[in-house]
Amino acid sequence: MLAALAVLATTPVVRGRLAVGPDPDPAARSAALAALAALAVVTVVVGPALALAADVSAPTVRIASGLVIAVTSVPDLWRRPLVAEPTDPPWRAGLVPVAFPELFGPPLAAALTAAATDLPAGPTAGLVAACVLAVAVADRLPGVRTATRPLRALAGGRAAFAIAIGIALTMHGVYDI
Amino acid sequence: MRRRLIGAGVTWAVAALVVVAAAHPEGCRTPTALEARTAAEAAVEWLSVNQRDDGAFLYRYDRAAARDLGQYNIVRHAGVLLSLAQAEAAGIDGAGDAFSSGLDWAEDRIVDAESGSALAEGQTAETGAAALLVAALVEWREATGDTGQDDLVRDLGEFLAASVTPEGAVVALVDVDEGDVADSRSPFSTGEVAWALARLHTTFPDEGWDEPARRVLGYIAAERDDVERRFPPVSDHWSAYALAEVGVEWGAPLTEDERDLVRRQAALFGLQTRYESQRRETGPVRWTRGPIALPAGVGTLGEGLGAMHRLAAVDDVAADMQDQVDDRLRCVAGILVDRQVSGVEAADEQPAAPVAGAWFRLGITQMDDQQHALSALLAAMDDLPGGDGDGGDS
To answer: Is it the case that residue B394 has pLDDT exceeding 90?
Structure first.
């Protein structure tokens, strides 16, 4: 449950929206979403498999994931998102910087790994879908300027929430059996 | 943009470092029941061949210097008797003789106290010593049917019951002439006394031992950590034994506080087992995880987990955790089997007797290393592949 919450807390919906620019090209949106979906699927498949191969138990995965989320979400408290260059081809802008590094960063990768280690395949697939859907819906919102203060404050608030969830996930791993 | 992309790369590098530092391989292997039994037999052999004529055991030994480091501890002597009685119950050769000789040593140190009898050298008796002797004698009684020590068991029990305060705390030290040493507490005596009193009720169900036993358990569950030591929490395998005694042997339901204690203790045993299984005696992991723990400490984890394993048969809180508890229990057994010095490894050492069958940390072994490791292996044996409750394929 906590790992599922971590996935939602580490999905940078607002940062993704800001990164794609105030008037995004549909091709950039599609490329970003496709890349996010592909990276998320690879993570939920490879992450737990690597943990199993390395003989790392689920509670230890939770500890490591929680620490990664808490530590690497800190810069997101104040860091402005990278914004797609208008001169780049849309598909390329969708991949860099929108999908990587803004949408798919270490916090989301860690949260997806923890969730996929703890949860069965069905709920994990649902979480990946929810994560991609949240970004897709945000992309449909009316255009915003990158400097919009409320949105940046919202992105910072999301990072603060992710840090709190990261700490909780770590403690949950510590106090598991 | 390029500079900020480099910043993102640095974030990924930091994440990788965090993962490497936090998620070490746990290296848990599941030994077979035969491997565990062989290790337990070697531990009993160590206790037997390193026992003096008066019944005392080799206490502390430096492997590199091949030197007996002297000293002795009466509580640990009683603890070793307990592990030998458990080994006798498991049918391990040599355990009974070593137990009997060790009991002679203990009987020479039974003293009259204000209430009942204590096990003490000198003026001050530790309640933990009497408690472990009770646990050992009850184990011996169950294993052999020998009721010859029943009067002694009751006298020791009377001493223990008198050491319990009205709120359920346990006085750790008693002056045999003057009475309780004020405010003396110990992180382990309380659980030891709870278990001893619980065992007394199992053995003599009509004599009222259940009331003080339950009082102590209630105190441990609800108050002990706040009153005596909030941090770090006590990893208390003796309380786990007591909880299993009440749940399994008495057939009594646990209170909510006691069930919460089951959860907390299982979590502590699990965390420590995972951490210990990440440690290595050599290589870079020593920098991040430190040297391996005392073998006695690892053994107590197995004892605690073994008690939780038994409790799972009768308590749904423990049953919910059973898969994880069993995984950790098998992991402890694997660690102990792998870390024990075998007879072959010790063959070239002079003398070999204090080395073969022992567990060392930083070149030192102590008799309670063998005691706790032996008890843990016996607790895990049935749950391992080839054991009576075959732990199968995990």
So the answer is: no
Contact in structure between B134 and B160 (CB atoms under 8 Å): yes
- Residue with the two structure tokens 């490879």: A46
Q: Is B266 on the interface with A (CB under 8 A)?
A: yes
Facing residue for A177 by CB, picked from B26, B27, B266? B266
What is the arithmetic mean of pLDDT over B4-21? 89
Contacts of A51 in chain B (CB under 8 A): 23
Which one-letter DSSP state was computed for residue A74? G
CB contact burial A85-117 (16+ within 10 A = b; e otherwise) = eeebebeebbbbbbbbbbbbbbbbbbbbbbbbb
User: Do residue A175 and residue B22 have CB atoms under 8 angstroms apart?
Assistant: no
What is the residue type of B175? Answer: D
Burial code (b: 16+ CB inside 10 Å, e: under 16) for B33-53 equals: bebbbbbbbbbbbbbbbbbee
The full set of domains in chain B, from first to last, is 35-381 (1.50.10.10)
How high is the ipTM of this complex?
A: 0.89
> Which residues of B165-229 form beta strands (DSSP E)?
173-175, 179-180
Mean of pLDDT over chain B: 94
- Domain locations in chain A? 2-174
Residues of chain A in contact with residue B8, where contact means CB-CB under 8 angstroms, are 82, 97, 100-101, 105
